[in-house]
Each structure stands twice: as C-alpha cells, then as structure tokens.
Design goal:
The structure is a homotetramer of 132-residue chains.
Chain A: H1 5-21, E1 27-32, E2 37-42, H2 49-64, H3 68-74, E3 97-101, E4 107-114, H4 118-129
Antiparallel strand pairs in A: 1-2, 1-4, 3-4
Amino acid sequence: MNITLEQAEKVISVAKEKSKAIDTKMNIAVVDAGANLVAFSRMDGAWLGSLDISIKKAKTARYFDMNTGIIGELSQPGQPLFNIEHSNNGLITFPGGVPIKNANGEIIGAIGVSGSTVENDHTVAEAGASAI
Amino acid sequence: MNITLEQAEKVISVAKEKSKAIDTKMNIAVVDAGANLVAFSRMDGAWLGSLDISIKKAKTARYFDMNTGIIGELSQPGQPLFNIEHSNNGLITFPGGVPIKNANGEIIGAIGVSGSTVENDHTVAEAGASAI
Amino acid sequence: MNITLEQAEKVISVAKEKSKAIDTKMNIAVVDAGANLVAFSRMDGAWLGSLDISIKKAKTARYFDMNTGIIGELSQPGQPLFNIEHSNNGLITFPGGVPIKNANGEIIGAIGVSGSTVENDHTVAEAGASAI
Amino acid sequence: MNITLEQAEKVISVAKEKSKAIDTKMNIAVVDAGANLVAFSRMDGAWLGSLDISIKKAKTARYFDMNTGIIGELSQPGQPLFNIEHSNNGLITFPGGVPIKNANGEIIGAIGVSGSTVENDHTVAEAGASAI
C-alpha cells in the first residue's frame, strides 16, 4: 500500500491549516512507502533551511517507521544509536517527522514538518498524518 | 520579486491538468527566484527517477534564466558548453524546465517537469509557467 | 529585497577593517536572500579550512534568519536540535554567522566569518552586518 | 609564490570593468596556487548557475595550469581526456578559466569567469589575469 498524491495533498492541506492556526510558517514534505518525495509545500516566509530538514524528517520517519523524535533520544551521546544521523545522506532525528498510516494501520508514507519549535513542528506533522 | 506558494500551487495545478489531458504521469517541481524548492507533486505512477530530474530541471531553468533545452543544445559534444552538467551538483539540460515570469516579465521562479518524452515534459512545463 | 554586490563589498570592507583592528586573519563570505554567495574574501594567511566554514556560516544564518551561535546552543546533545548540522549539505552552528538587514529591517542576506576564536569571528561578522 | 588578496581584488576589479565594458554580468572567482578560493564577486543580475561554474573554471585552470578551453578540446568524445569532468568534484572545461602569473612567469593562481558566451567569459578572464 502506498500513499496517493490525492492523499498527500490532503495531508499537506490539513498541515497548512494547522500551521496557520498556531501562527507558524512551515516547510511540509510527504514521502511515500518507498521514502521518495510525493508532495512538498514551502509556506511564504518559512525558513529556507527548513526545506531540506522537512524532507529529511519525512524520510527518517519512514526509514524507521517511527516518529523522528524517538530516534533522536537513541542517537544522543552514550545511547545505542549515537550519530546515526551520518547514514542515508543525513537523517534528522528531532521531532517533526511522523509515519502516515491507512485505515488498516499499515504505513503508507510519512510527513516531515520544519519551520518553528520542534514542538510546533510535531504538532503540525501529527495534524497532517491524522488527515488520512 | 519571488513566486508565492499560492502562485506555485496554481502552476502545479495547471501543469497537472495538462499532464492528464495528454495522458501522461509527471513529476512537477517549482523553485523560487533563489532556485530553492517551493512546491512539488509526483503524480500516481510517475517514474521515480523523474523526481530528481524535475527538481534539477527547475533549478537549471532558473540558474540560467532560459528553457533547459536551449542549454542542452549548447552542451553537446563539440558545442561551447560541453559537460556543463557537472556544475551545480548536477544540471539537467534537456527540455522540461521553463522560467516563470510575472506580469512585468520579471523572472520569479521556474518549473521543471519530468515523466514522459522531453516534448511532453516541455509541453506540460510551458502550460504550468503560463498560468502566472 | 536582495543585497547588491556594492552592499556586499561594503560589508566585506568593513569586516576586513575590523579583522585587522583586532589583529586577526579572516575568511569572509556574504550570501544573498536566496543563500547564494555574492562576495568572498580570504585574507592573506587566514586558515584554509575556514574558507568553507565562513560560507556555511553565512548560509546557515540566512537559512534560519538568526545568528549561527543561537542554533549551536539548540543543537547540543540533549537539546531540541541535536545534530541539525547534518542538513543542508552541512551547517555550521557556532558563532560567526549573522543576518544582514536593510534599513526597513528586512533580511537581505547574511555574512559568515571564520579564522579566529568564535568570539572574534562573531565580532567581525557583527561589524560587517552593521555596515548596511 | 601565491597570489595575495590585494592582487586577487585587483584581478576582480579589472575583470568587472571589462565585463561592464562589453555589457555583460559576470560571476568572477580567483583561486590561489593551492586552488583554494581567495576572492569572489557576483555582479547584480548575473546568472545564479554561473556562481559554481566560475569557481570550477578557476580551479580547473589551476589544477592543470592551462586555460580551461584547452582541456575542453581534449575531453571531447574520442579524445584522450574524454569525460575528465568527472574528477575533482566536477571540472568545467570550456573557456573562461585562465591561470594567473606573476612578473617572473610563475603561476600564482587562476581566475574563472562565467555569465555570458564562452568567448565573453574568456575575454573577461584574460583581462583579469593580465592585471597582475
């Protein structure tokens, strides 16, 4: 099962609404089950550097089928996955990446959001992922 | 002058319609005046390898403010710009990248399309660019 | 709004004067609003390795519209942006990168300075940025 | 012997004058004897994609101590250096890169120019190199 473009657009649309509702400007990326980009939107005035981060968050969430923040806890100094960010041409392991599941609970892609605090990034990513 | 997300979404929407009208499945990328991605859509079933090509076409069109196919004529063996594709982390110099201008004729971004023949790619890119 | 070459040259000129005044040898880079290099100077005898660092500092400051040192505090182990440096082909998040604003307070580019202690790097970057 | 920043600035200044005199907008890069960037200027309105090309031309000219166009003749299909552009993270082998020599004829650096036809690029590079 793979996310469709129509679903990805719905994810981005809901994420944009949430972003506006909490007064932020976000880069929003959606990847499919193969971790390849399906849709992307950079809101006017959003940080340029968050473009790459949002895509890397979406890929990271699908690479390991979990929220990026969970990996970030394991990649700290002394933890089991220290510096895992060096793999896959660069992971981003702080919050803002969330897997997207279909009605059966199967992972069909992931969303990555960047442009504010990691808490806000995660809130917007969660809103987008829950649109499916 | 820089393209807005709303303008970029309109460009992609018109490009998608054109793509469907000629029975193709495209990757469509829009970059701003700084050659940074603003919006992207991969239609269901479109070639995965065209994802990167569409983004590189959009960047290439903005890097040199001309249709990508023009550069491709000049980069052939024996021509003045042979192997220019090695610059800028990889250019794509066949048709499918087109600058986007505002009402005053100023370049505000570019569109890149990939997923079919280069003729079809260019047709869809032209349709998208003309939406502004 | 985008920085002009004349403005970028003034930024570098003032930064060089400051660098000499505090007896340092610097690499100084200025990027525009799109985070693309506009002007660069490496003072005689400045560290070679600081060439890339100065450019990455300038890009990083524009990517997130803040001084690089602020990001560096957030990217420490246990902090919210741990290992953000893996994004955007490599960020530099210690001091020495500063956004450049015009008279209206709009960010039109950024300066990155590297070649001495991070305190000195920041001092010279601040001097350069304040030239506009 | 290595080019000084003062010399590099003179090279760029003369190249800019020449560029204006022939009504072009150029990216101009100067590298030292170690092929590392010393100074760079992007004239207002110059092609963004020429930024990387000008630096690669300067490096290429110093890597092989000859005008870049000479290498380009040897890198054509069937010629001895076919596709040499794949080395050194990307060479640019069409005209616009010229070694810079001191009064004793020793090579102390190189200039790379990009932003117009390769003939114009070379003309401006020659003018800059002859300033020393």
